[in-house]
Amino acid sequence: MQKATPIKQILLVGNPNVGKSTVFNLLCHKNQKTGNYAGVTVASHTGDYDHQGETVEVVDLPGSYSIYPTSEDEAILSKFLVDEQKNYTGVVYILEALSIKRGLLLFQQIQDLGIPILLVVNQIDQAERRGVNIDLDALSRELGVTVLQSNAKKNQGIEEIRAEIYKNSFTVSEKASFEVPVEQKGLVFKIFSATKESNQYKIWTLLSSDTYLGKLETVHEQINDDEVKCLVPKRLQTQETIRRYQNIDRIISKVLSKKPQFKELLTEKLDKVLVHQFWGYVIFGVILLIIFQSVFFLAEYPMNWISDFFLWLSSLVNTNLPEGPVNSLLANGIIPGLGGIMIFAPQIGILLYFLYLLEDSGYMARVIFLMDRFLRPFGLNGKSIVPLVSGTACAIPAIMSTRNIENVKERLITILVTPFMTCAARLPVYSIIIGLIIPNKFFGGISYKALALMAMYFLGFFMSLLAAFVLKKMIKSKGASFLVMDLPSYKLPLFAYDFKIVLGKVWEFITGAGKVIFLFSIVIWFFSYIGPSQNQEDLVSTDVKLEQSYLAKMGKSIEPAIEPLGYDWKMGVGILTSFVAREVFVGTMSTLYSLDEEAPEGTIIEKMRSDVKPNGEKVFSFATGISILLFYAFAMQCISTLAVVYRETKSWKWTMAQLFGMSGLAYIASLIAYQMLK
């Protein structure tokens, strides 16, 4: 049955961190995940739902505090609202009960643009806990709109929102809440008389925002040079903001009452410790230690189960299929390759789950606040921590989230240094190498392996800071930006919901990496299956030993360049293939060691641990392992990330500088480490 064409388009709008994206997920049954800080939703997201035979398309726009954009993600909101070509039914405005004063600024701006609007007051239970009571009926009368209440975290009020959208309960304000100042009235009226635009406030926004000046039809023709010189956008915006807040204060005095609080709230008590200048960092370090310990400890059993399953599957195929290329391809190529990456799914899932719990609880916002003063000397804005933290999952959305950084220089620096952060694709590489070279011992109840993994994450973070400091000296720019954010109240995380989100993310990782590894497993198997023929009549010989294959010859051709780093030809092949995606290294090594007839039976780690060079040395010695860890910590080995860097910077110069700079640094660091430790 063909789905009905959407007949309504609704814009979901609000300040950052008001539960807007949670409402979007519930309305459209989507599993989009956003964090507890501004700048995570960096582009509009679209979903739809059916209600009483009507299809409604919902567009979730980035959070913003004002109609005037200060960053690229906020500009998306302004374009949707100001652009006359957008055909939408109305705006559902999400207002957080605890931040009603701040939220009404953007609400009134949208209302004065003549846009049909419906108001939803979210998280009203949080306000009541703090002794804040909001008279919703009085608020509705004062604003002249339909007002609903919701608690998105508990899935309350969503059906009421759907019902009001169905009834078209969107209101267009008859009277503007902001009156154009006398000084600009003449110019506004001049443009008003000469153009087709009937909304005077829209004309005002075009005059008071340098971003959109001239977008209105023939507006340039109506303003002479002297009038342009008199327009100072920031001053006009400040003038408007002051007047609006005077009006908002009058409204709040009528609709809001607050009981005196004699008891200090839990949020205030916790913040005295969690954002403390000393203890805040200590607690954050302890939390990270617990997470990394869990990554190894909790994932051990499921990883063993997955490893045993793929060993059994490979043995089953090898036993039951006739000997030949198909048997070899499946048993020694595809199955070990896929198993080599899927074994790390539990570790990735555990890491992501902890990060989501920290976001949901409200703690991650404290980390951002805590790190702001730490980042500024390195040329980064406090908002830079958002992409840096996001980079621990994946650099691609992390780089996109830099759009909320207003300062061009700070945004460029953040884009260039974010790939140093340890992403989920590096985790399989780190896990397998740490498992090979770090003993299974404990220090104060914490395993050496957990400490090593934590060290790799800190190495990525400090390298990003060092690179930022260097770039700060190289890139010249005027101006600076400031961190403006709200610290949300602490909440109990949605454990089941976050677990569901994590399962989806892990599945995305497996299917995304699996496709690449599947392809490379076939290519690697093919070139390992054939080699130069000893018979002069034949050009190619099949089913040769791995050492005599074309793959070995290709690997050995680059061995002179990688041997000083402690790598053999197998590792060279793994590094080359992982330029597509870092995690391919593990799949490649799994396939290669499965194809090696001389390797002993067992897991991929057991095979790698027992591998020796012709002189009897271990292939994966401590020196070699450290060299590999450093190489993958610094090298830019992700084509998708490079593509996103170019898309965001629109500069081949910076994209190529990042590629060669990071790769060169990785080579030099690995070379020094191996030569010193061997």
Secondary structure layout plus pairing:
Layout: E1 8-14, H1 20-28, E2 45-51, E3 54-60, H2 72-82, E4 90-96, H3 100-112, E5 117-122, H4 124-129, E6 132-134, H5 136-143, E7 147-150, H6 158-166, H7 182-194, H8 200-208, H9 219-222, H10 225-230, H11 233-255, E8 256-258, H12 266-274, H13 279-297, H14 300-320, H15 325-342, H16 345-361, H17 363-375, H18 385-390, H19 395-400, H20 408-417, H21 426-437, E9 442-443, E10 446-447, H22 448-474, H23 495-529, E11 530-532, E12 540-542, H24 550-557, H25 559-562, H26 569-577, H27 584-595, H28 604-610, H29 622-634, H30 639-649, H31 652-677
Parallel strand pairs: 1-3, 1-4, 4-5, 5-7
Antiparallel strand pairs: 2-3, 6-8, 9-10, 11-12
Helix pairs in contact: 3-11, 5-11, 13-16, 13-22, 14-15, 15-23, 15-27, 16-23, 20-22, 21-22, 21-29, 22-29, 23-27, 24-26, 26-27, 29-31, 30-31
